[in-house]
Structure formats: structure tokens, C-alpha cells
Amino acid sequence: MKHCFNPKEFLEDACLITEIRDDIREECEKLGPVKKVMLFDRHPDGVVSVKFGTHEAAEAAVTVFNNRWFGGQQIEALQWDGVTDYAIEETAKEREERLASWHKIYR
Question: Where are the alpha helices (DSSP H) in the chain?
């Protein structure tokens, strides 16, 4: 699913990652068993991957979540193509900046 969050939100509150992941898991479990929910927290499209226990639940999720609004954004839900890698690595400079900003917040 795309557009589930804005990655900039996590710069101020890293706990939002867990909160959003749990919210999405809860909604997805209404459709069937969920094996894994993974947020690609650095991806600019706000990507979340959900692995369902059944193919039927995964298909239902695409139908239910596509074009649905979540957190003020319209979700784009689709089946993973098996190829696309949504992970984006953090550079050393980005890591320094993130840790410095957290240090200011949690001091």
C-alpha cells in the first residue's frame, strides 16, 4: 500500500512507526490472518507491505483499501509485483541529522 504516511512525521516522533503499523495490522486482520506488516519508513511514497496468511485476504485488502483514506491521504493498494524493492537506505549524513534532532527532542 502506498500513501499510508509521510516519512517526515517520523523525524519528530519515531514511535509513530509502531502506531501506524499497529493500526494497519488491526484493519487488515478484519480481512483475514496477517503474517507481517512492514513500514518502509524512509520511502517518500509512504509504503507499507502486508503479508497475509491467505491469497483471498490479500485480494480482499486490495479491494477494500485501494482509494481509501488513511491519515489524511488516499491509499493506493496493489499486489506486490515480486520485484520492486521499497527499502531506502539512510545515508551517514541523514543518520547524523536524525539522531541530532531526536537528541534535541528527548533531552
Answer: 9-12, 15-28, 55-65, 92-105
Quickly tell me which residue has 490479500 as its cell.
Answer: 58
What is the mean predicted confidence (pLDDT) over 43-51? 96
Give the integer Cα–Cα distance in Å for 71 and 87: 22
Show the cell assigned to 56: 483471498
Q: What is the pLDDT of residue 106?
A: 64
Under 8 Å between Cβ of 31 and 52: yes
